[in-house]
Predict the 3D structure of the following.
Amino acid sequence: MKRVFVIGAAVMLAAMSLVGCKRSQEPVQFHASGHPGQLSDWHVVSVVDGHLRLNEGVEPYALNSALFSDYAHKLRTLWLPPGTKATYKQYEAFDFPVGTIISKTFYYPRAGKDAAVLRVAEQASETRDGLDLAKVRLVETRLLVRREQGWVAMAYVWNAEQTQAVLAREGDSIAMTMRKPDGSGEQAFNYMVPDENQCAGCHATNNTTRELHPIGPKARHLNRDDPWHPGTNQLARMVQLGRLQGLPATGVPHNARFDDASAKVEDRARAYLDVNCGHCHNPKGAADTSGLWLDAGTTETRRLGLCKPPVAAGQGTGDHMFDIVPGDPDDSIIIYRMDSLDPGAMMPELGRGTVHEEGVALIRDWIGAWLGNCADPEQKVAIQSR
């Protein structure tokens, strides 16, 4: 676990200004009811001078490891009503006040003058002065809004002119072409914007109540260096800005970055599975009856899939016997489902039309490090850290 660093007053003052310059906009507008038809009705982000810029008081944030969404980059923001604070929770999403607006804008770097987009790693510098629309293509912006009755999700799709985003209650399918910077690996896919029910498929993290909750704003995901203010811990900065209360001085959970080659494979893999699968695969989630729990709090190897036969995966097994076969990723159901684009087999089953090659490779390495076999149920099986 990482200690949260306290920032000085000078750094705090610098942090209070938005990334880059903020242009004059109408104040953020919280809508306590209804579904406004345009993203601009909220005044959270706006297109100004060819850039997508954040409004005053709208703060960007980043996660240690993020949900994979067809290699899309994401600009995440948080706005709290003035004078209010979120309350720290150790493992669950923070308790945010009514009026909170969380936004997530999905975008891709442009490949050139044609309509193709690039498959490249996300860089914080892309958003330091807002998103330059000459360099990126906006696809959608999702809002998660905290109202009196609970959280409400809405998705807004950007038009071809990149001037406005319109509410898409029934979702959308956008044909796209993606390639690597060297021009190789060109791939056509359909980018799927979720409808309202599909939003609940992930954000209804409790299968009993079916109430929507944020997934990313948790201590273990936010406990990291602020990419826009290097040397500043994000959680400490939230406290200094008066946006978070109850943060302990020590013992704050921390997930690894899945792409951090200096971290242990086990830590990277668990972080990846936690953020991509754990919101469903946990004791209370939508996949609670599967018996496969992939959230950060699960430590029992059987629950993590080791030599565990599937409960009701159907064709999703690919004729494999166990979720994880130690030392044999190719015979493990988890790898089969992560590597599939078959709607009846792929996992996650929503939010992607491509395979996350780097994610699959990481989980392969993790499974490959497990020792033992599933032939003898009495044999002890363990994972070797590396």
